[in-house]
Design brief:
CATH superfamily of the largest domain: RlpA-like domain
CATH class of the largest domain: Mainly Beta
Structural class: alpha+beta
CATH architecture of the largest domain: Beta Barrel
CATH topology of the largest domain: Barwin-like endoglucanases
Distance between the termini: 200 Å
Strand content: 15-25%
Helix content: 40-55%
Shape: rod-shaped
Number of helices: 4
């Protein structure tokens, strides 16, 4: 009976030792085998770490891209604001210059209007003076049987550049407007020395016909008569010639 009990206890003891040895062998397969105790990594753990590392790298890349986009957007917004400001300044400048041009144009137009009104008034005064002088210089036709004199004759035109003008009109010494016509009541107009032929005198010029003395000239002295013609060509063709003038 005692031997049987001892045998039973030995069997239990051997089973316990075997179980311990099996557990120790299984642990050694995971944490290391042999006296050097080398650690063998779990493949699942390695994969988990690799996935985590890749995730962290992806997050870092996304953060960098987001930062780059933010900086680029800030630059774009700043550039858009700069361009908008330049356009605003340019538009204000253009508007200001346009307003200045319009103001200048209005000022010039007003000055021209005032000048035109003044010229009109001056012309009205000269016309009134002309009419008054003409009323005192009544042309009386004469026959060719009167007193005749020999005179030297030249010719001149009603060109404002040669005679000067008053408000754009060419007037004789008596105030008669010859801008548009070289005739007075159908008669030719001459410039004379009033000491020889009084202004307003109607004479007969050989080869020309009746003419009236309505003008004078700085070089018209003595027996010199200047005949008013249409063009410079006619004046040149007339030249300087001797004529017979019949006085009333």
């Amino acid at each position: 009976m005692i031997m049987h009990s001892l045998k039973y206890m030995m069997i239990i003891l051997l089973m316990a030792v075997g179980t311990f040895a099996f557990a120790a062998t299984a642990d050694a397969a995971q944490i290391g085998i042999g006296t050097e105790q080398k650690i063998v990594q779990n493949p699942l753990e390695l994969e988990r770490k690799a996935i985590e590392q890749e995730r962290q790298q992806k997050i870092a890349r996304e953060k960098r891209l987001a930062e780059q986009k933010r900086i680029a957007e800030e630059k774009r917004v700043a550039e858009a604001k700069r361009i908008a400001e330049e356009k605003r300044v340019a538009a204000e400048k253009a508007e200001r210059e346009q307003a200045e041009r319009e103001a200048k144009a209005e000022r010039l137009a007003e000055e021209k209007r005032v000048a035109a009104e003044q010229a009109r008034q001056d012309e009205a005064k000269r016309q009134a003076a002309t009419e008054k002088k003409q009323s005192t210089a009544t042309a009386t036709p004469v026959s060719t049987a009167g007193r005749s004199i020999q005179a030297e004759s030249t010719a001149y035109t009603n060109d404002a550049a040669d005679n000067g003008s008053y408000g754009g009109r060419v007037l004789t010494a008596t105030g008669h407007d010859v801008t548009d016509s070289i005739y007075y009541n159908g008669m030719r107009i001459i410039a004379v020395d009033p000491a020889v032929i009084p202004l307003g005198t109607v004479v007969h010029i050989e080869g020309v016909g009746q003419a009236i003395a309505l003008d004078t000239g700085g070089r018209i002295k003595g027996n010199i008569v200047d005949l008013l013609v249409d063009t410079k060509g006619e004046a040149i063709n007339w030249g300087r010639r001797h004529i017979t003038i019949t006085l009333p």
